[in-house]
Write a structure and sequence with these properties.
Layout (H helix, E strand, L loop, with lengths): L7 E2 L2 H5 L22 E3 L8 E3 L1 E3 L8 H16 L3 E4 L15 E4 L9 E4 L4 E4 L5 H10 L2 E3 L10 H7 L15 E7 L5 E4 L5 H7 L8 E11 L2 E10 H9 L9 E6 L9 E9 L12 H11 L5 H18 L3 E3 H5 L13 E10 L4 H11 L6 E10 L14 E11 L2 H20 L3 E2 L9 H7 L3 H11 L8 H7 L1
Parallel strand pairs: 4-6, 5-6
Antiparallel strand pairs: 1-7, 2-3, 7-8, 8-12, 9-12, 10-11, 10-12, 13-15, 13-16, 14-15, 14-18, 17-19, 17-20, 18-19
Helix pairs in contact: 10-11
């Protein structure tokens, strides 16, 4: 990766002040410490407990020390015939960062390491793969910048975001990979190569949305934009109009961020919509904080929806009437991005939150929603939220889910942790996938592995190219995960 022009190092020690309590890594399942006890990790679903041979937690940053250790770790795993999986916060929900009886690598960064450098002139930053988005936001915020694209919460690792090629809600961008200038990737051989849209482009297109199956990302160079104050505008409209309205949001140059919501109570189920757009506001942004009393209140309102149509009606009122009246609607771009998953997390250990995500052409969204109005109520599942976002076409990734302008429908279900509910979720998921495919769309891969292989093939027509690339770049199949075995092997 080319050296940045006069990069400014930013101390992570200063960044972590006041934020460590929200670090999602503290909630990661840890390997048992008793002598001879098994090592078990799970992911955000709490349904994928996986026994491991080894769990290694390096703290990557610039320099060769950790690369030497990583190279040795990969060599030892290969010699022992152990597959390797790589993860950060492990918020995927189907074992995409886990492999049974293998070596799990969890990437992080520590306070004493120079883990990020900024190139103001190029509007880019170089970052270690284990950095969490909350750390990136803090570093960029002090310099007056903001991530061009990131996931909708700040808990996740930067390299993990590229590995799932996540998208966000800034307009008018495509998935995160379209804002990545270059990466350095350690292959199974231990060699480190630079990949970008112009250098080793084929490998870059495989690793972008490649779920860690092609190597370990050891550094990224990513686009950043100016931070600014934004003011929210709230528009209520029929759900049938939301797809075209979201797709047209880039036509208004003032719109910087946008998202939609759908009502989930029985009377308005997926028929009423809220469109929220953000435009520049005058003033100087303050520091990008996170949390507070309103976060607690929103969690309580959000969780009151479970099993309660009255709760769902109250939440819709809070979001469409009370919140717009109670707030100025003005916040910095970074403040809007700087929220943890924990803000809305549930506390009932007998339930788990399961995400689905479907990508629809704007004209196909209503067709998909019409199918959802039948499929979801017929299931045992409790739909708590649907968020919709604009996604520009992805011309880079082999496993591109946005093969044209798409509206992403992110659905959050509260599922009981029982065998019956898991079987019901799997059946409902396959019906929803068929509905998305029939509407000209696709579905996202980081969630439960409930899709049929033919559904995966329909959604990702370059699947054979992906598998062939895997065997070409990793012939010993060192890098594996549960999704590789479930969908591709």
């Amino acid at each position: 990766m080319r050296a940045a022009r006069a990069p400014r190092r930013i101390s992570r020690r200063a960044l972590l002040a006041g934020s460590a309590a929200t670090a999602v890594v503290s909630a990661l399942p840890r390997p048992a410490r008793a002598t001879g006890a098994p090592i078990v990790l799970d992911d955000a679903s709490r349904l994928d407990a996986t026994s491991l041979a080894r769990h290694w937690r390096p703290s990557p940053a610039s320099g060769e020390t950790w690369l030497t250790a990583l190279r040795a770790e990969l060599k030892a795993a290969a010699a022992a015939g152990r597959p390797v999986s790589v993860g950060a916060a492990r918020h995927s929900m189907g074992g995409q960062a886990l492999i049974r009886d293998g070596v799990a690598i969890t990437l992080d960064v520590t306070a004493d390491e120079p883990w990020i450098t900024l190139d103001r002139g190029a509007h880019a930053y170089r970052v270690a793969p284990g950095a969490r988005w909350r750390q990136v936001i803090g570093a960029l915020d002090r310099a007056g910048f903001s991530p061009a694209v990131m996931q909708s919460n700040h808990d996740f690792g930067v390299a993990a975001t590229l590995s799932v090629n996540a998208h966000g809600w800034p307009v008018p961008y495509g998935p995160f990979g379209t804002t990545v200038r270059a990466i350095r990737l350690m292959l199974a051989s231990g060699d480190v190569v630079t990949c970008s849209p112009t250098e080793n482009a084929e490998l870059f297109s495989l690793a972008t949305g490649g779920y860690g199956l092609f190597g370990v990302i050891v550094e990224l160079e990513v686009a950043m934009v100016e931070n600014q104050l934004l003011k929210a505008r709230y528009d209520l409209l029929p759900a049938a109009q939301l797809g075209p309205r979201l797709a047209a949001s880039p036509d208004d140059a003032a719109v910087q961020m946008a998202y939609g919501r759908l009502a989930v109570d029985a009377a308005r189920f997926l028929r009423d919509a809220l469109l929220v757009t953000f435009r520049p506001a005058p003033g100087v942004p303050s520091a990008a904080t996170s949390g507070g009393f309103m976060v607690f209140l929103s969690r309580e309102v959000f969780r009151a929806q479970i099993g309660s149509d009255r709760g769902k009606r109250a939440r819709w009122y809070a979001e469409t009437v009370a919140a717009p009246k109670a707030s100025s609607g003005i916040a910095s771009r970074n403040r809007l991005l700087n929220e943890p998953v924990a803000n809305l997390a549930g506390r009932d250990r007998g339930r788990t939150d399961i995400l689905h995500e479907y990508f629809l052409p704007p004209e196909g969204l209503e067709t998909f929603l019409a199918a959802c109005r039948t499929i979801v109520p017929a299931s045992r599942q409790d739909l708590l939220n649907v968020t919709l976002r604009y996604v520009r076409e992805d011309p880079l990734s082999v496993l591109a889910y946005a093969r044209g302008t798409r509206v992403a429908a992110v659905m959050l279900f509260s599922q009981r942790i029982t065998r019956t509910d898991e079987e019901d979720m799997a059946a409902m998921t396959r019906r929803l996938i068929d509905a998305a495919l029939d509407a000209g769309g696709s579905f996202y891969l980081p969630y439960r592995l409930h899709a049929g292989r033919e559904q995966v093939r329909r959604a990702y027509p370059r699947l054979d190219e992906f598998v062939a690339g895997k065997h070409r770049h990793d012939p010993g199949l060192l890098f594996q995960n549960a999704m590789w075995k479930g969908y591709f092997a």
